[in-house]
Amino acid sequence: MTGKVYLIGAGPGDPELMTLRAVRMLKDADVVVFDRLVSDEIMAMCPEGAEQIAVGKCPKNHLVPQERINEILHEQARMGRKVARLKGGDPMIFGRGSEEAAYLMALGVEVEYAPGITAAQGASCSTGVPLTHRGLATGVQYVTGHRQADKVLDLDWKRLADPDTTLVVYMGVANIGQIAVGLMTEGLSARTPVMAISRATSAQEERMVSTLGRVAQDCREAGLKPPTLFVIGKVVSLYAANPQDLAVEAVSANG
Ligand SMILES: C[S@@+](CC[C@H](N)C(=O)[O-])C[C@H]1O[C@@H](n2cnc3c(N)ncnc32)[C@H](O)[C@@H]1O
């Protein structure tokens, strides 16, 4: 009898941000196949006796190739086990969840989903910086800032350089200089505010507020490391360490 795979979004780190469905599925699992972005607190919620398989890193510190992860999920389900595939954030946002689901379903394995709070939403609520805001941003774009080592970032800078939209860059630490130049070349002001958030929603969360013109240098000086995301746009001007100030700023931004 074939088991099934639960494709679970664990959220950005804080266990309270998991959905009830995610917790139910995790508790029901015989085996947990997990990514490196899943926090220790969430791993502590795995059922006692469930096998845990880390696929974020292998002994030499390299990622387990996606093909092998797919095989592991299939092998486990074929043994009749209920497999929790636990991923940071949401499995369908820069999470390869759809690739894993397609592979498994083609082999006749049942897949069930639990959405997760993506890092952008977690960071937004933990810092109080909205992703949209009346008068400042009419929409939000999520984009990856990562390309394989030998490839250049070929993003559509013209489309992304929209002063009325918030841009959230995932996986952008290594290329933030290139990203800033691409956006400024297409007309975004060097004074556009940028916030970098590392380990959002965890006890180790770090925030850095900068501008497009300075962000690469500030990032280097602050020594920010992944997982970090960048929120770029006027909404960052609402950031205030003190929530009282945030409310005042928001009112004045609305006129
Ligand atoms: C492979 S993507 C996974 C995204 C994930 N599926 C999600 O929905 O959040 C990894 C990137 O997500 C971002 N990220 C994930 N968790 C984060 C966190 N707690 N704080 C800041 N950025 C995070 C970082 O940009 C990181 O490099």
Question: Overview of this structure, please?
Answer:
This protein has 255 residues and is α/β, with parallel strands linked by helices. It folds into two domains: 4-114, Tetrapyrrole methylase, N-terminal domain (Cobalt-precorrin-4 Transmethylase, domain 1, 3-Layer(aba) Sandwich); 119-253, Methyltransferase, Cobalt-precorrin-4 Transmethylase, Domain 2 (2-Layer Sandwich). Helix content is 30%, strand content 21%. The chain contains nine helices and ten strands. The strands form two sheets. A five-stranded parallel β-sheet has the order 3-2-4-1-5, sandwiched between helices. Strand 2, helix 2 and strand 3 form a beta-alpha-beta unit. The radius of gyration is 20 Å and the shape is elongated. The termini are far apart. Residues 245-255 have low confidence and may be disordered. The structure holds S-adenosylmethionine (SAM). S-adenosylmethionine is lined by residues 12-13, 37, 87-90, 93-95, 118-119, 123, 170-171, 197-201, 226-229.
In short:
This protein is of the alpha/beta class and 255 residues long.
The major beta sheet can be summarized as:
5 strands, parallel
State which percent range the strand residues make up.
Answer: 15-25%
Order of strands, widest sheet? 3-2-4-1-5
- Per CATH, the class of the largest domain reads Alpha Beta
For the record, the count of structural domains works out to: 2
Secondary structure tally, helices = 9
Bound molecules: S-adenosylmethionine
Structural class: alpha/beta
Which architecture of the largest domain does the CATH hierarchy give at level 2?
2-Layer Sandwich
Shape: elongated
Return the average pLDDT rounded to an integer: 91
Low-confidence stretches: 245-255
Let me know the number of strands: 10
C-alpha termini separation: 63 Å
- What is the radius of gyration computed over CA atoms, rounded to a whole number of angstroms? 20 Å
Bin the helical content: 25-40%
Briefly note the CATH topology name of the largest domain. Methyltransferase, Cobalt-precorrin-4 Transmethylase, Domain 2
What would CATH call the homologous superfamily of the largest domain? Answer: Tetrapyrrole methylase, C-terminal domain
Along the chain, the helix and strand elements come as: EHEHEHEHEHEHEHEEHEH
